[in-house]
């Protein structure tokens, strides 16, 4: 006889009254989905095509299963702005050469392997998203110093090189002052440019004043 089991899903509902309408967010794990009206909330929980699934698909890159550019904007970026947050900007080196010499399927596999390697280096509270063809951002939490950022980024660099068959350049950004996503990304982008200019396959850090390390 086949045994059937039901698994409960835990949700957190935040409600706010706006005029005659109850709006808010439905949260499960680290994902928060906005809704407008209690009918919308009911559909998300019990509908034939749950809004929850549609929302998650809209935020996810179909190839690598990490946040896409919109997902980064909606979920990763708002988590910046805390003193213990650092941002990494990753770019696979010579990725175009893989596509041109081995085909796009080989390039897709390299991206998937690279993302799996990155994820193995992350904690539960860290996040990763794809912002370009071979470009990714990583939000690291519980960072206490520049040395801490460089250590974590170097772990990722080595893991990607071993798993994906190609090297990766990483720009890292962190400040003792809490900075928002746009400012951290500007710093990480500057650091990544320096890493590429220095020969690729390395980690470079940029501080709030624009100074490059090492």
Keywords, separated by commas or semicolons:
2 domains; 9 strands; 6-stranded mixed β-sheet; 3-stranded antiparallel β-sheet; globular; disordered N terminus; Alpha-Beta Plaits; 214 residues; 7 helices
Largest sheet: 6 strands, mixed
Structural class of the helices, strands and pairings? alpha+beta
User: What's the average pLDDT?
Assistant: 87
CATH topology of the largest domain: Alpha-Beta Plaits
Percent range of helical residues = 40-55%
Number of domains: 2
Oligomeric composition of the shown chains: single chain
Strand content: 15-25%
Architecture per CATH nomenclature, i.e. the level-2 architecture of the largest domain: 2-Layer Sandwich
Distance between the termini: 64 Å
- CATH top-level class of the largest domain: Alpha Beta
- Based on CA atoms alone, the radius of gyration comes out at 20 Å
> Considering the protein shown, what is the CATH homologous superfamily of the largest domain?
Reverse transcriptase/Diguanylate cyclase domain
- What order do the SSEs take from the amino end to the carboxyl end, as H and E? EEEHHHEHHEEHEHEE
If strands are numbered along the chain, what order do they take across the biggest sheet?
5-6-4-7-8-9
How would you describe this structure to a colleague?
Helices cover 41% and strands 23% of the residues. It has 214 residues and is of the alpha+beta class. It has 2 domains: 12-59, no CATH class; 69-213, Reverse transcriptase/Diguanylate cyclase domain (Alpha-Beta Plaits), CATH 3.30.70. The chain has a 6-stranded mixed sheet, with helices on both faces. It has a 3-stranded antiparallel sheet with strand order 1-2-3. The termini are far apart. Residues 1-8 have low confidence and may be disordered.
């Amino acid at each position: 006889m086949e045994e059937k089991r039901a698994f409960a899903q835990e949700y957190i509902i935040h409600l706010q009254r706006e005029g005659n309408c109850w709006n808010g967010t439905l949260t499960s794990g680290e994902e928060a989905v906005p809704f407008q009206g209690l009918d919308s909330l009911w559909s998300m929980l019990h509908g034939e095509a749950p809004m929850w699934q549609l929302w998650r698909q809209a935020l996810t890159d179909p190839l690598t299963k990490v946040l896409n550019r919109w997902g980064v904007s909606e979920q990763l970026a708002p988590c910046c702005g805390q003193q213990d947050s650092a941002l990494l900007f990753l770019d696979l080196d010579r990725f175009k050469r893989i596509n041109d010499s081995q085909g796009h399927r080989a390039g897709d596999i390299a991206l998937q392997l690279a993302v799996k390697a990155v994820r193995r280096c992350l904690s539960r509270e860290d996040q990763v998203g794809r912002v370009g063809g071979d470009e990714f951002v990583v939000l690291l939490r519980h960072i206490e110093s520049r040395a801490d950022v460089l250590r974590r980024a170097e772990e990722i660099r080595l893991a990607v090189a071993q798993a994906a068959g190609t090297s990766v350049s990483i720009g890292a950004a962190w400040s003792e002052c809490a900075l928002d996503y746009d400012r951290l990304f500007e710093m990480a982008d500057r650091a990544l440019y320096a890493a590429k200019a220095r020969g690729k396959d390395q980690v470079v850090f940029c501080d709030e004043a624009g100074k490059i390390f090492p």
